[in-house]
Amino acid sequence: MTVSVVRLGSPRAKDEGLRIGTVRRLPRGVPKSEYASRDYFDVWLPELSPSEALVKYIDPRHFKPERWPQFARRYRAEMAKPPAARLVALLAALSHTADFSVGCYCEDESRCHRSLLRELLREQGAAIRPPQPRATGAKPR
Q1: Inside any domain, residue 101
Q2: How large is the angle between the packed helices 82-94 and 68-80, nearest 10 degrees?
Q3: Can you give the residue range of the structural domain that contains 83?
Q4: 38 near 122, Cβ under 8 Å?
Q5: Is there a domain that residue 20 lies in?
Q6: pLDDT tens-digit profile of 13-43?
Q7: Domain-located, residue 141
Q8: Buried-exposed string 18-55: b where 16+ CB fall within 10 A, e elsewhere
Q9: Contacts for 113 with CB less than 8 Å, ≥ 6 apart
Q10: What's the pLDDT tens digit per position in 88-124?
């Protein structure tokens, strides 16, 4: 059993399990009834996404590498607060009994909070599936 870290909107991998969207915003122009069928997510968990202020700070559409270290520190601080920290611990524990995935829309994981979420889950002892080769054709947010 493992947790996969994925790009939302990308085709699902075999045995990926339940897909959890750890994003602040819902997919634009997609009816709620189609989130799962269009490979976005089955469950929305915005509590594990960066705050609105932090999303604005990093601005994934106009990424500035010099902002990444500060973004990473601030995101980790947000995830250290009790509600988010409990969710990370819960997902880490569940990764030993079920297959599921967590993800975000960003194309490049190295410039996305999901890379940090992967680290946080690993630090909590999660069983993490190795990264899969990047799929093409993922839908932008």
Answers
A1: yes
A2: 90
A3: 3-123
A4: no
A5: yes
A6: 988 999 999 999 999 999 999 999 999 999 9
A7: no
A8: ebbbbbbeebeeeeeeebeeebbbeebeeebbbeeebb
A9: 22, 49, 50, 71, 75, 104, 106
A10: 999 999 999 999 999 999 999 999 999 999 999 999 9
